[in-house]
Design goal:
By secondary structure, this protein is mainly beta. It is built from one helix and twelve strands. Helices cover 10% and strands 46% of the residues. Strand 10 and strand 11 form a beta hairpin. About 11% of the residues have low confidence.
Length: 174
């Protein structure tokens, strides 16, 4: 009787792992969120570059995100790059804004290749249910770089790419 339980547990483990992103990639903790909602993007960085520590993480914000607020990280310098909007954006949440955050980066720290960590950005998501937002990430190491910037072509899964960008699917608003 114990044997079927062991087999069932093994199959359950395999099936749940199949839906998760590959551990070798920078990925988002939550891969789906309601459109037109506040979202806490937690980027997991599971390794460095072939033994070299990560010294910079750079995230490009997808179009339509607003009210972007990155969380500071002890030991790292935070930099935000803004872009001018003409005409100004009215996201219905924070009012009109003539600028939008285009890029967020953390640098000056050191994340060993044998360690993982999280980098967090809070934002407002666009009202586009069914859309997928891609967050290109450049992971710079003391020696080497990973460019998690590949956006899949229509009909191709992210697993077909060597360095896919973290993706977020927008569900219908609640």
């Amino acid at each position: 009787m114990l044997r079927p339980i062991v087999i069932l547990l093994a199959l359950t483990s395999l099936l749940s792992a199949a839906g998760r992103p590959a551990f070798a990639h920078v990925f988002l903790e939550q891969e789906q969120a309601p459109a037109n909602s506040d979202y806490k993007a937690v980027f997991h960085v599971p390794h460095g570059c072939d033994g070299s520590p990560t010294i910079r993480i750079q995230v490009r914000m997808p179009p339509g995100t607003s009210s972007v607020k990155p969380e500071p990280k002890p030991g790292w310098q935070l930099e935000v790059v803004n872009a001018k909007l003409v005409p100004p954006l009215d996201d219905g949440h924070a009012g009109k804004s003539g600028e939008v955050v285009e890029e967020v980066s953390w640098s000056g720290g050191s994340l060993l290749d044998t360690r993982s960590d999280e980098f967090v950005i809070v934002m407002r998501l666009p009202d586009r249910p069914g859309a997928t937002l891609y967050f290109p990430v450049v992971q710079q190491c003391a020696q080497g770089v990973h460019r998690w910037i590949e956006i899949p072509e229509a009909g191709k899964p992210a697993d077909d790419y060597r360095e896919p960008a973290p993706a977020l699917r927008l569900a219908p608003a609640r």
